[in-house]
Amino acid sequence: MSTSDALLALLEPAPAHGYTLKQDYDRWFAHKRPLAFGQVYATLTRLEKKGFVALADVEAGHGPDRRLYEITPDGVTALDAWVSTPQEPDLFATSTLYARLTVALLSGRDATQVLAGQREAHLTRMRELQKVRRDASGADLLAVTYELAHLDADLRWIEESGARLDQTRQALAAASGRADR
């Protein structure tokens, strides 16, 4: 999800100041990494140049002026297109697990240990999320169950990969011209 799409979505119900948008973004979308204020204002500037948001009001006060932004009809159209367009499934997950395992296999490192360590990290995170899920509702419940489903899929991949490490190691070695490993 891009910051631009998120800010457009947050502006759709009502105009808002950058500070409010940052707080709302962090509440709904930044479970692990809060959005920097600079990124909020840089994104709003880009959206304004594209015609997706407009300055609704400027309030003078102590310190910098407070700017109130609102979504434009073109911004609503862009948001509609983003929401209704299915996400392209990636060939490989954005996780580096695949890359780390491949490097371990190609370099002769202990790939079993890589998988075991990642398995334990996934299980630890799943236990944490199970506790959170008990009291979660609304968007928080959606986020928790989404992460749990992805962790579960990763665990299945870890188990399947572990079961065929020797075969995979041989195939990678042959493909890289290092059949002696």
From TrEMBL:
Gene3D superfamilies: Winged helix-like DNA-binding domain superfamily/Winged helix DNA-binding domain
Transmembrane portions of the chain: none
InterPro entries recorded: Tscrpt_reg_PadR_N (IPR005149), WH-like_DNA-bd_sf (IPR036388), WH_DNA-bd_sf (IPR036390)
A UniProt-annotated Pfam family: PadR
Domain Transcription regulator PadR N-terminal, first and last residues per copy: 7-80
Name of the protein in its database record: PadR family transcriptional regulator
